[in-house]
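Example (one chain per record):
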Amino acid sequence: MPRVALATYDPGPRPGKDRDLPVLVRALRDAGADAVAVPWDDPGTDWSGFDLVVIRSTWDYSWRAGEFVAWAQKVAAVTRLANPAEVVRWNTDKRYLGDLAAAGLPVVPTRYLAPGDAPDLPGDHEYVVKPAAGAGSRYAARYTPAGHGTALRHLARLHEEGLTAMVQPYLAGIDVSGERALQFFGGRFLHASRKGAVLAPGTAYDADKVAHPDLVPWTPAPAELEVAGRALAAVPDAGGLLYARVDIVDGEDGRPVLMELELVEPNLFLHLHPGSVAVVRDAILAAAG
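Predicted structure:
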């Protein structure tokens, strides 16, 4: 009977936001595994007692990215961690997009402004400012050149908190065709979903946002699958990946470009794709064996 921990976050008195977590725990238990969901920062957990620790919904990690990476390295030293700790370290800092662009991937053009850098923001097109360590559109906002002053205050806030900012052009195709999330699990394509635009004009960077508006199942085009495959092949230690989500949008020329590569704690959207539960369960059991 393999012992499997699904690492999540502690929601406190509020209900947890990972609606797929109890479904997956139950599926693993029904298959004979000793499966539990455990907050990643629970100080009383002996991670060495598990055959496999799967990072599932550690959705508060971006507030403590350094602590989270250290936790991943600690767990990986005593048992198997999925995804591997080095992948976690690489993927928690969105400067990985620069690595993928250098490898020839079509990536949303991105500049990085670290604390102390000059506040160089676009003056001729709509753009997005967000932290290089973030999740769920936290501290992200969309600006036109007319909002330059607000964008500067946003940038200053990120730098005050010691965060490096990302500056990207806002791709108008997102408002038309949305953002497509291609999921992979156990080395194979699992399913895909499409969501609408997250960043509405005028929404404050520190406002709560709906992370996955208007989410629906999606059948990816061959060009989208091709970009996703190239992105996964460019990941350091790609052979150790158990899961991945590749987020794709349309570029200015209408061709798919990579928005993000989620290798740490992507929402699997199993509630939208219930047929995928068995595939995910079997892949986790195989990894635990």
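Caption: The chain has a mean pLDDT of 94.
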